[in-house]
Amino acid sequence: MASRVGSLTPFLVMELMERALEMESRGQSVVHLEIGEPDQQAPPDVRRVAAQVLENERSRYTDSRGLLALREAIADDCERRSGARPDPANILVTSGTSPAMLLVFSLLLEPGVEVIVPEPFYACYPNFVRYCGGVVVPVVTHASEGFAVDPDEVKARITPRTRAIVLASPANPTGAVQTPEVMNSLAQLGPPLVSDEIYHGLVYDGREATSALSLDSESFVLDGFSKRYAMTGYRLGWLVAPDWAREPLRVMQQNFFISASDVAQRAGMAALQSGAAALEGVRARYESHRDLMVKGLRELGFGIPSQPAGAFYVLAEAGDFGEDSLALAHALLEKAGVAVAPGIDFGSSAEGMLRFSYAVSRSSIEEALARLGPVLPELARKVGSARKGDA
Ligand SMILES: Cc1ncc(COP(=O)(O)O)c(C=O)c1O
Predict the structure, then answer these.
(1) Does 44-276 match 3-41+279-390 at the fold level?
(2) Burial of 378 from C-beta contacts in 10 A (0-12 / 13-18 / 19+)
(3) pLDDT digits over 49-63, tens only?
(4) CATH assignment of 44-276, given 1.10.760.10, 3.30.450.20, 3.50.50.60, 3.40.640.10?
(5) What is the pLDDT of residues 256-287, one digit of tens each?
(6) Nearest in space to 262 (alpha carbons), one of 100, 50, 88
């Protein structure tokens, strides 16, 4: 086996989910807050178009860059949301944001180069970087500062080997939304921004996320249908690349993937045509779930110094209930039947934290909070006595 594969680390939250599924198969009930996946159906038109294409049409390979009509619809959608319309020739439609990441990092990285990544980070970023021979240079952000990225700290870590600055705003796992000023400063630092905008549109408190499209034409923007349109299983995303990158990316896509799924692309067009109108309802639903989750977790004693403003996650300080986040997540699953993601998945600075997804129904959130209530005091007592013992 190639050493680049050996360097990949497992996604621990999947381990939790697999254990939860095992418990459910034995008849135990589990509330799933561990996975970053909307619990709702994709919009009706999306499902209708997908069914109609499957039923009546011969599905084919498409242009490797994606159907032109879809790329035009994506360009219009980008313009609606960010004010900047990318040239459809610079858009590449992919089988999700994840393959887009693989293409961009394959394009930019070679052994020994560096990529700056704010931490806590989406667990897969370091693996993509390492797989492509790069070295992750983390910039730790703090719960007490709302996980704001400090452009001066990023600047201090730039070296001649830096090939990219990766940023997600809103972010997984923190839900943090960076200000336009921070985004603008990061775009001015020199290395290209790889801006993961998969949670754009899911922003609360009257705020908006800033798209790198409106900042710098040398940025790479990754986006997709999974989160906004609850289309995780369709596997559809895209990237917007600078002019110089579009041909090499196209060649990689032709060779490695041929094209994204024809069926999914047609369904994606329906999402942009009619699903966009429903987005405000989706956003408002998540905002009210965020409020419920944050309030409930604070009442239970979790530390949430500032309210996350986007995506659908709360990354809460949980050290008073267990300092080892993986062991704590397992304990909550076994004792309370609540599955959550361990902070350690998102970088060592997130150890002692747990990530709760609120892309579930209100009743699931209420049930999870009710189940956690009775088991936390005992866990807190154990941590308290261990700390006294240490002292
Ligand atoms: C920040 C971030 N980027 C990308 C992805 C993957 O998205 P896709 O389903 O489009 O591959 C996720 C999924 O959780 C994510 O949280």
Answers:
(1) no
(2) exposed
(3) 999 999 999 999 999
(4) 3.40.640.10
(5) 999 999 999 999 999 999 877 889 999 999 99
(6) 50
Which of the four pLDDT bands, split at 50, 70 and 90, describes residue 369? very high
Give the CA diameter of the chain. 71
Asked whether the predicted pLDDT for residue 390 surpasses 90, the reply is: no
Q: Report the atom number in ligand 1 closest to the C-alpha of 237.
A: 10
Taking the centre of ligand 1 as the mean of its atom positions, its distance from the CA of residue 223, in whole angstroms, is: 8
* Pocket perturbation via mutation, ligand 1, pick of 98, 117, 261, 265 by most ligand atoms within 8 A of CB: 98
For residue 98, how far is its CA from the centre of ligand 1 (angstroms)?
6
Residues touching ligand 1 (Cβ under 6 Å) are 36, 96-98, 122, 168, 172, 196, 198, 224, 226, 232, 237
DSSP string covering 368-387: HHHHHHHHHHHHHHHHHHHH
pLDDT at 389 over 90: no
Candidate from 97, 232, 261 with most ligand 1 atoms within 8 A of CB, to mutate: 97
Q: What pLDDT sits at residue 221?
A: 98
Dihedral angle computed from the Cα positions of residues 122, 125, 126 and 130, in that order, rounded to the nearest 10 degrees: 170
- Given a contact cutoff of 8 angstroms between Cβ atoms, the answer to whether 155 and 183 are in contact is no
Every domain of the chain and the residues it spans: 3-41+279-390, 44-276
Quote the pLDDT of residue 216.
81
Output the CATH code of domain 3-41+279-390. 3.90.1150.10
pTM score > 0.90 for this model? yes
